[in-house]
Structure formats: structure tokens, C-alpha cells
Design a protein that fits this description.
Layout lengths: L7 E4 L2 E7 L22 E3 L1 E4 L8 E10 L2 E10 L18 E7 L14 E6 L4 E4 L10 E3 L4 E7 L6 E8 L24 E10 L8 E4 L21 E6 L5
Parallel strand pairs: 2-15
Antiparallel strand pairs: 1-2, 3-5, 4-14, 5-6, 6-12, 7-8, 7-13, 8-9, 9-10, 11-12, 13-14, 13-15
């Protein structure tokens, strides 16, 4: 893959990314031909958070972001030589299957989101179902949830490069008032120019092991007691995106 165009800068020790507004419609179909994707700049998935650095043939990835008032839009280009989905139950150890993980903090407030909706860590599986942890009902229950209505996702294999897939997603943005017991009472935010949000992207890679072999992300994370797998519980490690006007606006 070519090196991404640079649109990332460091501000107050937090990586920030400018995201343009799409000027044309995007169809979520795993096809990168939509004109709107020409407005986004490629960003790499190349920071290893779990496991050793994979070979280029085992995994490589990059992504683009654009937005419209209804949602944040993501296109990821993933090279993965083995696709592995060992758990048919989408709520059972979903992090140990191949998955795209999308981290969103609606107000960029940071902080804990382990069992609350201060932020979201959507694990988007190969069957395009999206799982995260919700509030605990009991101390011994993690309360894994399907939040499929938050993320519309489709991926498709490349006909020219058989190990490459294009993964598109439309991500509705919910704030910390999200009511998972009565989802019809919660409405996604309308996005506007200048809005800032916490964001990261990662890929869970497993070629056939019992547990995830690699976890590769979009941004560096300072380890806590040697552990860089912090994003699922701490939104303070997210990078920041700022929503900007589109071309010729």
C-alpha cells in the first residue's frame, strides 16, 4: 500500500485528524468507487497493540473518513490472508475473531467507558454485526450487547487482489445518554462543521488460534503496566477528529 497523504497533526499531545464533509452520496456496499471517497485522505493502521508485528502478507490496512450530517463514514482497505470467525455467537469472545473495531467518543471527553456509554468500542465482525459492552446488570456479568443499528457495515473481497477487502461503514453517533433498554428513545446526533469527537480504528487479526494473534490500531497508545489494549475501556487514549467543510464549500 502507498503511504497515506498526511493530514494528521499533534495538538496538546493528542493526535488530531481533519475529516472533510462528503459532497456526494455514499452507498455502503463494499465498493470504493463512490466519488465522496476522493475527498478523504488515507491513514494507516500500523500500530501494534497486541502481539508481534505481522508480516505484510498476514495483515496490512489503511482507512479514510468523511462525514455528512447523518453519520460518520469509514472506508477501510484491509489485507488479511486468513479470515477467521470461530464463534457463531456474536456476543461470545468476539474480540478473538477477525473484526474491525471502531472507537467513538461523541464529545471527545475521554475517561472510562468500560460499562457505560461515555464512549463506544464497536467490534464489527465478519458477519457485519457490531458488539460492545454495556452497563452491568450484575457484578458477574459483562453485559455484551449487539448495537447493529449503530453501524451499517459491508465488506467485499477484491477481484484483483484476493487477500484485500474493502470495508465500508456508516456510523451513527450517539452520546452518553444512549438508552440500550429502550433504543427507540435514543436518537443519533446531527453532525456539524467544527464538531470534535474521539476516534480510533483497529483490526483484530486471528489466523486460526484460540485467541487473537494481533491487534493493530490507527494511533500509538502509551502502555499501562505494559498493556496497550486500553481503548475498549479508556476513551482518553483515543485520537481526536474535527469535522470540516467539504471541497469547494
Amino acid at each position: 500500500m502507498a503511504e497515506p497523504q498526511s493530514s494528521t497533526s499533534v495538538d496538546s499531545e493528542k493526535s488530531t485528524l481533519a475529516v472533510p464533509r462528503a459532497n456526494s452520496h455514499i452507498i455502503i456496499d463494499g465498493n470504493s468507487s463512490d466519488k465522496a471517497w476522493q475527498q478523504g485522505n488515507w491513514q494507516l493502521l500500523n500500530h501494534v497493540w497486541v502481539g508481534d508485528k505481522p508480516s505484510r502478507e498476514d495483515f496490512s490496512g489503511r482507512y479514510k473518513l468523511v462525514w455528512q450530517s447523518d453519520a460518520l463514514y469509514l472506508m477501510a482497505e484491509i489485507v488479511d490472508d486468513v479470515l477467521f470467525d470461530q464463534h457463531p455467537n456474536p456476543l461470545h469472545r468476539y474480540w478473538d475473531d477477525d473484526a474491525l473495531e471502531i472507537f467513538i467518543d461523541e464529545d471527545a471527553s475521554g475517561g472510562d467507558h468500560t460499562h457505560n456509554f461515555n464512549a463506544f468500542a464497536y467490534h464489527v465482525a465478519l458477519d457485519n454485526q457490531s458488539a460492545d459492552m454495556g452497563p452491568r446488570e450484575r457484578d458477574d456479568k459483562n453485559n455484551f450487547l449487539l448495537l447493529n443499528h449503530h453501524v451499517e457495515s459491508v465488506w467485499r473481497r477484491s477481484t484483483d487482489e484476493p487477500y484485500k477487502m474493502i470495508w465500508e461503514a456508516r456510523i451513527l453517533i450517539f452520546d452518553d445518554s444512549y438508552d440500550y433498554k429502550n433504543p427507540n428513545n435514543s436518537h443519533p446526533k446531527t453532525l456539524t462543521v467544527g464538531k470534535k469527537m474521539g476516534f480510533m480504528l483497529a483490526y483484530c487479526d486471528n489466523d486460526g488460534s484460540q485467541h487473537r494473534e494481533h491487534f493493530i490500531g490507527s494511533h500509538p497508545i502509551t502502555p499501562v503496566d505494559g498493556d496497550m489494549n486500553q481503548g475498549y475501556k479508556n476513551a482518553s487514549v483515543f485520537a481526536e477528529i474535527t469535522l470540516l467543510k467539504g471541497d469547494n464549500e
